[in-house]
Design brief:
The chain is mainly beta. It is 3% helix and 51% strand. The relative contact order is 0.31. β5 and β6 form a beta hairpin.
């Protein structure tokens, strides 16, 4: 059963913007937290951003603070990642995560549902 589907990846020049969307099943979207992670070639998957359902608070990796914004549309079971001022080092496959088990939102092991990933490539 597919629980998370990402959209919006693509090729963009340095300084450009992209908006990623993650459509979740109702059960997965009811998770207390949703997050975005990314994995660049030859590197481990890393935390990008998370949003807590109950209070709407957000958390970001230092590398994307001030450039990326995570948000959610509860009516559409969708989580967004607005990415501005993109840099070549942002190039990666971006994954949406849900079904949060608790603990630290930055820990990928605390999520039980993952999307298939969407490629973001930033050219210099």
């Amino acid at each position: 059963q597919v629980q998370l589907v990402e959209f919006g990846g693509g090729l963009v020049q340095t300084g450009g913007s992209l908006r990623l969307s993650c459509v979740a099943s109702e059960r997965t979207f009811s998770s207390s937290a949703m997050a975005w992670f990314r994995q660049a070639p030859g590197k481990e998957r890393e935390f990008v951003a998370a949003i807590v359902k109950s209070i709407g608070s957000t958390a970001y990796a230092d590398s994307v603070k001030g450039r990326f914004t995570i948000s959610r549309d509860n009516a559409k079971n969708t989580v967004f990642l607005q990415m501005n001022n993109l840099k070549p080092e942002d190039t990666a496959v971006y994954y949406c995560a849900g079904d949060f088990l608790g603990g630290l939102v930055k820990n990928e092991n605390q999520y039980n549902a993952w999307g298939q990933g969407t490629q973001v490539t930033v050219s210099s």
